[in-house]
Amino acid sequence: MFKLHIFYIFIASFGPIFGQVQTCLPYDTNLCYIKEKFPVSELKIEKRIESEEGVSLSRTSLLADIDGDCIPELIIGGIENNQLNFINPFNGKTIKKINSDYFGESASPFAIADVDNDGKIEIVLSMYDGIFTSPSVKGKLVCLNLDGTTKWISDQKYGQNISFSKSGCPAFADFNQDGKTEVYIHNSIFNGQTGAMLCNGGLNGIGNQTGVDPTGIGSSSEGTLSVAAQLDDDPADLELAAGYSVYKVMISNPSSQLGNKMTPLNILIDSEYRDGLTSVADINKDGKLDVIVSSAQKNIGTLYVYSMIKGLPTLLTKKSFSNNISNIGPALIGDINGTGQLSIIIDRPDSLFSFNYDGTTMLNQQWTMKVDDKSGDSNLTLFDLDNDGRNEIIYRDESFLRILNSASNFSNELTKIKCPAPSRHEGPIVGDIDNSGNVKICVSCFNIDSTLMKLYIFAPPDTLPGWAPGRGIWNQYAYNPLFINDNLSVPQFPKNQATYMNGKYNNFMQQESLLDNNGMYKKSAASLTGKIKSVNYNSNNDVYTVTFDIYNRADASAKADSNLAVSFYNGNPATTGALIGIYHTLKKIYAGDSLLNLQYTFSASNLSDLFMVINTTRNKSGAFDPVDFIISECDYTDNIFRTLVLPKDESVNPCNYIDTHLCYIKEKFLPSKIILEKKIESKEDVYTIEQALLADMDNDCIPELIIPASDYESILIIDSKTGLTKWEINAPYLSNSSNSIAVADLDDDGLPEIFCKSRIGSQIPVNMQSKLFCYNLNGSLRWISDESFESEIQNQLGGSIALADFNQDGIPEIYISNKIFNAKTGIKLADGGLNGIGGGSDKNGYTLPPIAIAAQLDNDTTDLELAAGYTVYKVIIRNPDGMIGNNMIANNIKINNEFRDGYTTVSDIDADGKLEIIVGGIAIKNNILLYAYKMSNGIPQLLAQVSFLAGIQATCSPPSIGDIKGNGRPSVLFARTSILNSYSYNGTTTFKLDWSMNVTDLESPAISTMFDFNNDGIQEIVYRDDTFLRIFNGSVIPPMEITKYNCSSNTSLEYPIIGDLDHTGHAKICVPCGSNLDVTRGKLTIFGPPDSLTGWTPARGVWNQYNYHVLNINDDLTVPRIQKNNATFKNGKYNNFFVQESLLDSNGMLKKPAASLTCNIKCINFDPLTNEYIVVFDLYNRKDATIVADSNLAVSFYNGDPTSSGTLIGIYYTLKTILAGDSLLNLEYRFSTSNLKDLFMVVNTNRNGSGAFEDKDFTQVECDYTDNISRTLELPKLDSIQAKICKGASFHFFDTIIQDPGIYYRKQSNINGCDSLIYFLNLSTVDTIYTKQSIQACDDYQWNNKLLTQSGIYEFDTLNQFGCDSIISLNLIINRSNSLKIQDTACYSYYWNGQTYYNSGSYAFHTKNNSGCDSTITLDLFIYKIDTTDLIVESCNDYYWGRFYYNMSGYWKFDTLNRFGCDSMINLWLTIIKEIKITQLQTACDSLRWNGVTYTQSGIYTDTTQSVKGCDSITTLQLTISKSNQAITKQTSCDSYFWNGNTYTQSGIYKFTIRNVNGCDSIETLQLTIKKSTNSTTNRTTCDSLMWNNIVYKKSGTYQYTTLNASGCDSIAILNLIVNPSNQIRIQQTACNSYTWNGKTYTQSGLYNYQTINSTGCDSMVTLELNIIPSSLKDTSITICDSITFLNKTLNTNGNYTFTLQNTQGCDSVINLNLNVNSQHFKSNVSSCGSYQWNVNGTAYDSSGIYIAKYTNRSSCDSIYQLDLTIYKNYEIKEKAEVCNEYLWPVNKVLYTQSGDYIYQLKTNHGCDSIIKLNLLVNPEFKHTDTVSTTDAYTWPVNQKTYPSSGTYQEVYQTQNGCDSIHLLLLSINKDVSIYYPNIIHPGGLNSYFTIYVYGASATIKTLSIYDRWGERIWQKQNFPPNELQQGWDGKYKDQDVMPGVYVWHAELLLRDGSVIMEKGDVTVMR
Question: CB within 8 A of 977, min separation 6: which ones?
Answer without folding.
Answer: 951, 953, 955, 1001, 1002, 1003, 1004, 1005
